[in-house]
Design goal:
Layout (H helix, E strand, L loop, with lengths): L1 E5 L2 E7 L4 E5 L15 E6 L2 H10 L4 E4 L2 H8 L5 E4 L22 H12 L3 E7 L11 E3 L2 E5 L19 H9 L11 H6 L4 H11 L1 E6 L7
Parallel strand pairs: 3-4, 3-6, 4-5, 6-7
Antiparallel strand pairs: 1-2, 2-10, 7-9, 8-9
Length: 223
């Protein structure tokens, strides 16, 4: 066991070498980009054309074309770590600028509650910072993401993405994230890239998911 100090906390760390990972609403795999191949990863993506791109970039992963929300319900107990990124458009602060009003997609909170009470492994649910006060307080806010998790994740400074006003936004994001989509057609490449979790952040979170953490401080309780 290794020890490190974070602020006034002393943290004991056991590293788990191999995890069975479920990557829900996988997209093209922004969060997974820097995970390597030592883990057993199952990715679930609803749209076949997007699942194909994910499979091209990560041929060692098992890719399932299915409804991620239902797949979680049926298979959650088969994995050591679950990452879920439910659809964010109905929660985004940009929603306040749109004329058409819609209900927030409650699958986000359904999954947080379900994982908290029924799942025995480590989980992380990721979404945007919403236009409303979150109905369940996030464990942490990292970059532009609200994070709900049952394990310790240290804060991480990331470079702000100021690409939305760029003339060649898609090209900038392709270079930054390491995904070349030039050979693919029939997809919104800009949107797929904008939906990616910054790969360095995905790696940072997995690094902490790989660890068993013991916090040594009286009365300190992990969220």
């Amino acid at each position: 066991m290794a020890f490190r100090t974070v602020g006034q906390l002393t943290i004991g760390i056991f590293v788990q070498k191999h995890l069975r990972i479920l990557n829900l609403y996988a997209g093209i795999g922004g969060n997974r980009k820097l995970w390597g191949d030592e883990h057993e990863i199952t990715a679930v993506e609803y749209k076949p054309e997007i699942a194909k791109i994910y499979r091209d970039f990560f041929p060692n992963d098992k890719v399932v074309v299915a409804d991620a929300h239902q797949y979680l319900l049926e298979h959650f107990s088969e994995f050591d770590f679950i990452w879920s990124s439910p659809p964010c458009p109905t929660h985004s602060r940009t929603r306040t600028m749109q004329k058409k009003k819609v209900y927030p997609d409650m699958r986000l909170y359904q999954e947080i509650i379900f994982l908290k009470y029924w799942y025995k492994g480590k989980y992380l649910v990721e979404n945007v910072i919403p236009y409303y006060k979150p109905l369940i307080s996030p464990t942490r806010i990292l970059h532009r993401h609200c994070i709900w998790s049952n394990f310790w994740v240290q804060d991480m400074a990331t470079e702000p993405l100021q690409t939305c006003k760029a003339v060649k936004e898609r090209e900038l994001l392709q270079e930054k994230f390491g995904f070349n989509l030039d050979d693919y057609t029939g997809i919104d490449k800009r949107l797929l890239l904008r939906n990616c979790v910054v790969p360095e952040l995905g790696k940072h979170i997995l690094d902490w998911a790989e660890k068993d953490v013991i916090i040594e401080q009286p009365n300190f309780i992990l969220p």
